[in-house]
Amino acid sequence: MVFRVAARTLLELGADLISSDAVAIYELVKNGIDARSTDGVTVEFSIALPRRDYTDALTRISELLQRQRQRNVTKDVVTAEMSDIKAFVRERLLASAPKEARARIQRALDDAATPEQMCAQLQQAYALSNSIEFRDTGRGMSRGDLIDAYLVIGTPSRRRAIDDAIALGSEAPFLGEKGIGRLSAMRLGSRVHIETATADDTHLNVLDIDWSSFDDLDKLIDDVAVEPTKGLKKPAGYSGTTIRITDLNGSWSPRAAREIAKDQFARLTDPLAKTKRRFRIVILFNGERIDIPRLDRTILDYAHARVTGTYEIKEGNAQLEADLWCADLGKRNAPETRRIFLEQVDLRSITDDPDTEIPASALRSVGPFTFELYWFNRRLLHGIDAIGDRSRVLELQRQWSGIMLFRDGYRVFPYGDERDDWLGLDRTALGAKGYKLNKLQFIGRVLISRTLNPQLIDQTSREGLTDRPEKFVLIETMQYVIDRLRTFLDEVDARQRHVDIDLEATEKRVEGLEKRARASIRELEKRHRDERPKLQELLEMFAELQIAFARAKARTVEVENERDRMIQLAGIGLMLEVVAHELARSTEYTLRMLDDSLPAQLPADIAPVFRTLRDEMKTMNKRLRVLDPLSVSGRQRKETFGLAALIREIFEGHAAQFRRHHIKTEVRLTTDDKDVRVHGVRGMFVQIVENLIQNSVYWMDLRRADEDDYVPRITITIGAAPTVMEFTDNGPGVQPSLQQEVFRPFFSTKGKTRRQGLGLYIARDCATYHGGQLYLSDERRVHRGRLNTFVLELPSDLVS
Q1: 477 and 564 together in one domain
Q2: Are 145 and 62 in a shared domain?
Q3: Which of 31, 49, 85, 341 could hold 737 in an S-S bridge, CB 3.0 to 4.6 Å?
Q4: Angle, CA of 220, 224 and 226, to the nearest 5°
Q5: 620 domain residue, yes or no
Q6: Do 318 and 436 belong together in one domain?
Q7: Are 212 and 238 in a shared domain?
Q8: Do residues 661 and 712 touch, judged by C-beta distance below 8 A?
Q9: Residue 677, in any domain of the structure
Q10: What span, in angstroms and rounded, lies between the C-alpha atoms of 646 and 650?
C-alpha cells in the first residue's frame, strides 16, 4: 500500500507555501535568475479590468439574478439594470489596456442578452483579458525537463547540485532548491501557459495547466492529466521561457505594480553593493515601464552612526570583530570610534539563552557572515544637495529603512520589510533608556552564503529562516552588536551633556527590585524564626532606604533648575539602581544558599551567610543615605579588620554553592602567613569580593559545560600595600580588548537574560571610595590570550 493524494491537496499546498503575491512574483523571477537569463527577466502586467471592479460587477449581476428568480423585478427593470452594469464595466476598463483585451470584454457585454449570459461571458472574457507574463532568455526547458522536473513537486535536482557545491566549497549554482516555485503561478492565477525551449530544441515546448481542475473533491492527483505538447518552431538561436498566467486572483493596478517595484524588486539584489550592475528586471504595466528605484548611496555618508563587522570561523573557533563609529549627535561632539572583538567563549556567553538552548557547536556551524548598518537620527537629518530638501531625505531614508538579509547577493524574504522586525529592535527600543534604536532608523544589510552558511535555510513558505540553533546565533549576535551601538551612543552623549535624572523610571525599577528583596526576606523569616531579629533589622533598613529615596527625590525636584546642584545630583538615578540591584541580588543569593544547605548543616552555615548579608545591607543603606543632600549622618563608618579572615568568611558562606559547582578555592598570604589588616568599610569589601565571585562562577560554569575534565578554581592572594588582593580564576578569562569595557555600567557579555552589567562597576566604585583602584591585570596567568586576574590596590595608610 502507498499513500494516495487527493488532487485538491496541491491547491492547499500552494496556498500554504506561497504566502503572498509578492512572494509568488519573487519566486518566478528567481527562476529566471537560476536559468542564467542573459537579458534579465521581464514581468509584464496586461490588465484591462481591475479585479475589484470585476468583482463588483459580478455581485450586481448575482443580485439581479436572485431578484429575477424571486420574480421581484420586471423585464424592463432587468434590461435597465443590465444596461447600467454594462456601462459600469465599460467605464472601469483601463484606457492603457491593450485594445484587443478591451474589445474582448466589450464584445462579451454587447453579446449578452440575459443576466446569465452576461455573467458567463464576462467571466470568460476577464480570464482571457487580464494576465501576468514572465519572460527570460535563460537555458529554457526541454520536454524532458518539463516532465521530470517542472511537473515533479519538490524535485530534488537543484538540491543535489547545491549539496555538491557545499561539499566542494564552490559557489551555489541556484537560488532556489525546494522544487515548489511552480506553485507560485497557482497563487497568481488559475491558468498558466508555458512556452519554453533549450538551445538544442527546434520547437517550443508548450505546457498548459488549469489549476481549477484540481479542485474536484472526487479526484486523486493522478486523475488530472497534464502533459507538454510540441509548439511552433522556435526563433533561431533562442532559448528561454515565457510563463503567462491568466484568470488572475489578485487586483492589479499601476499603483500595485509600483509598490511591488519599490518594496520587492528594488531590494531583490543588494542595494548597498557598490557595483552599479545588477540583474536586469523590467516591469511593464499595460506597456508602460515601471521604474525600479535604486538606493542613492550618498545618504549613507550622512548617517549619524554606523557599525560594520565580520563573524568568522578561524582555526575551528568563532570570533566577532566590529567597528563602531558615530558622528555629531547634535551635541557638537567630535566623531568617535570603538572596536569590538569577541572570541568563542564570549560569543558562547552572549548566545546563552535558556529559551533557545543554543549548543556551542552552532557558533561554528552558523558559518561566517558580514554586516553593515547605518543609523540615522531622523530629527537631525537635513537637506542634502545631491538628494534634495529635508522632506526628500527623510522620505529616502524611510524608503530604504530596515536591516535586510542577503544570501549570495539576493534577498532572503521578508527580512527588512517595513512590517518585519526580525531583530526585535522595536520591542527593545520601547524599554530602552537613552537612545532608542528602532528598525526605521537603520539602513543595513547582513550577508550570508548558501555554501558557507548551509544551516541558514529558508522556510518552505519563504517567510524567513527555519528555526535552527544557527539562526538564533545569527540573531543573538546581531542583537548584541546593536545593543553595543546603543550603549556607545549613550556614552558619547553623556559626555556632552549633564545627566538627566528620570526619577519616575528609577523609582519603578527600585520598587520592583525592593519587592524581590522583601519577598526573599519574608521567605527567610518563615524558614528561620531564630533569625527573626536580624531579618527585622533588614526590614527596618528598607524603611530607611525609602525615606532616603523620598528625600533625595524631593530635593532633586526642588533644585532641578539649579545647574550646579543638578550636576552634583546627576548620578543619583544610576546609584539608586545600583543599590537596589545589589539588595535584590544579595537577598536572593542568601535564599539560594539556604536552599542548597542540608537541614543538618543549617546552624553552622547560617551565621556567616547572615553576617555577610547584614554587612552588605548596612553598607548599601549608608551609601543611599549619603545621596540624600539633607543628611549628615549617612557617612560611612570605617573599621579595622583582617582581609583574609573576611574572605574566608565569605567563602564559607558560599560553601554549598562551591560544592555544587565543583569549585576549588584557595586564600594565599604573602606576608609571612600574617593577615593583612585593612581600615575601611567592611561591607564594601564584601561587595567587591561577592561581585568577583559571582562573575567567576558564571564564566567557570560556561567553561565546565564545554570541558569534561575541567576543574574550576578561584585563588585569592593577599599581600602588602599597594597590591592588597589579587583575585584569579581559571575560567575562560576576559578578552584583552575589553579590559576597560568590563567596568563600564551596564556593559556585559553575558546572555541577555543575565546581562545586567553592574557587578564590576559596583566593585570598582567601592575600591575608588577608599582611594584605591580595582583593575584587570595585563598579566596572563591562565591563558596566553586572555586576562584572568583582578587586582585591588589600596593606599598604604589603610593597610597594616
Answers
A1: no
A2: no
A3: 341
A4: 145
A5: yes
A6: yes
A7: yes
A8: yes
A9: yes
A10: 6
Same domain, 524 and 667: no
Q: Find where cell 576576559 sits.
A: 734
Identify whether residues 450 and 523 lie together within a single domain.
Answer: no
Same domain, 731 and 664: yes
**What is the three-class DSSP state of 42?**
strand
153: left (phi over 0), alpha (psi -120 to 50) or beta: beta
Q: What is the 3-state secondary structure (H, E, C) of 118-138?
A: HHHHHHHHHHHHCEEEEEECC
Q: How many domains does the chain have?
A: 5
Residues 6 or more apart whose CB falls under 8 angstroms from that of 600 comprise none
Residues paired with residue 725 on neighbouring β-strands, in sequence order = 718, 792
Q: Is 364 helix (H, G, I), strand (E, B) or coil?
A: helix
Helix, coil or strand: residue 700: helix
Boundary of a domain, candidates 637, 666, 699? 637
- Distance (Å, whole) CA 726 – CA 558: 45
Judge whether 1 lies within some domain.
Answer: no
* Domain residue limits at 529: 498-637
pLDDT along the chain (800 residues), means of 10: 78 76 86 89 95 93 88 85 93 93 92 92 93 95 90 71 66 62 84 95 95 86 89 94 93 90 89 83 94 93 96 95 93 89 92 80 95 94 91 93 93 87 78 73 95 88 86 94 92 69 64 72 70 66 66 58 38 50 58 52 57 60 44 59 90 81 92 88 86 90 88 94 94 92 86 75 89 93 91 92
Domain-embedded: residue 224: yes
DSSP readout, 441-508? GEEEEEEE-TTT-TT--B-TTSSSB---HHHHHHHHHHHHHHHHHHHHHHHHHHHHSPPP--HHHHHH
Instruction: Give CA–CA dist 731/631, Å, rounded.
Output: 43
Cα–Cα distance, 719 to 672 (Å, whole number): 10
Instruction: Choose the final residue of a domain: 290, 315, 339.
Output: 290
Q: In angstroms, what is the C-alpha Rg of the chain?
A: 35
